[in-house]
Amino acid sequence: VQLQASGGGLVQPGGSLRLSCAASGSIFRRALMGWYRQAPGKERDLVATINSGGAANYADFVKGRFTISRDNAEETVFLQMNSLQPEDTAIYYCNLRVPLLGYEYWGQGTQVTVSS
Fold it and tell me: Which pLDDT does position 1 carry in this prediction?
């Protein structure tokens, strides 16, 4: 399984970005997909997850601003990020897990920088 993340960039405070993560392989439909982020000098934090049925969970610090979604036909997971703030600056990683099979994979990360 390979995960290819894209969509990061530089945006002003209050702006929006949409991240995408395309997966290769046949297990996407069964997978729990997630987005994590890691700021410089900090640990990697969970941002949001979405299960195979489309149920989503969010970290408190992004509730109401970020939306995770998935397209099983395209084997892609998205993260729509609105009302971005400087504290959202981080490398964002996508994650694929199939707990029953013991699978876990990480994408390469995409940089999001929020600055005026």
Answer: 84
Region 83-100 average pLDDT: 96
Token pair belonging to 99: 């707990």
Closest CA to 8 of 90, 103, 72, 77: 90
Task: Give the separation between CA 112 and CA 7, rounded to whole angstroms.
Answer: 9
Alpha carbon of residue 84 to chain centroid: 14
pLDDT at 99 > cutoff 90:
no
How many whole angstroms separate alpha carbon 2 and alpha carbon 56? 22
Q: Give the strands of the sheet with 66-71, arranged side by side.
A: 2-6, 17-24, 76-81, 66-71
Angle at 101 between CA 99 and CA 104, to 5 degrees: 60
- Distance set, CA 111 to CA 27, 94, 108 (Å): 26, 12, 10
Angle at 115 between CA 112 and CA 116, to 5 degrees: 150
- Lowest average pLDDT, out of 22-31, 38-47, 53-62, goes to 22-31
